[in-house]
């Protein structure tokens, strides 16, 4: 037995909540990771600058890389917020946006933690052994790529096109998809049969 689900139930008023939460998660978690990475790397730079002040500008790389993580979250949050439409915003689309926000946000949080820890230890180690600098940069690049992976998945989820009238005037029947005309014809046929 199939149950018809009209379009109004597919675009409920609360569907915007999930989209807004996706935008919020993208910004908050990625900014949290960037802040941690910046603070932890900054502590390493401050401790190192006491012994070797000439390495300060060379040691700012981890702070810059941590700040880029927040830009990833900002891009996805703006894309999600720009796609929220109060009239034609389906649950399907809002769940995609929630997943996109969590994807970039949580991967940005993990990348920020990794950049902060590597930046702190790497900057202190580079002050004592300058040949460690290239290794530190390579590890920072691999930590940054974690946030980039989340950005790529988020962009795919955010820009995915709506298919089969997900937010339009079609009627979805569980198990089968029919257009409005088809379901109206079948309901008229059932009415005639019952007479």
Automatic annotation (TrEMBL):
It is found in: Membrane; Vacuole membrane. SUPFAM superfamilies: F1F0 ATP synthase subunit C. One of its GO terms (molecular function) is proton-transporting ATPase activity, rotational mechanism. The keyword Ion transport applies. Keywords: Hydrogen ion transport, Ion transport, Membrane, Transmembrane, Transmembrane helix, Transport, Vacuole. InterPro entries: ATPase_proteolipid_c-like_dom, ATPase_proteolipid_csu, ATPase_proteolipid_su_C_euk, F/V-ATP_Csub_sf. It is a multi-pass membrane protein. Belongs to the V-ATPase proteolipid subunit family. This is V-type proton ATPase proteolipid subunit. CDD domains: ATP-synt_Vo_c_ATP6C_rpt1, ATP-synt_Vo_c_ATP6C_rpt2. GO terms for cellular component: proton-transporting V-type ATPase, V0 domain; vacuolar membrane. V-ATPase is a heteromultimeric enzyme made up of two complexes: the ATP-hydrolytic V1 complex and the proton translocation V0 complex. The V1 complex consists of three catalytic AB heterodimers that form a heterohexamer, three peripheral stalks each consisting of EG heterodimers, one central rotor including subunits D and F, and the regulatory subunits C and H. The proton translocation complex V0 consists of the proton transport subunit a, a ring of proteolipid subunits c9c'', rotary subunit d, subunits e and f, and the accessory subunits.
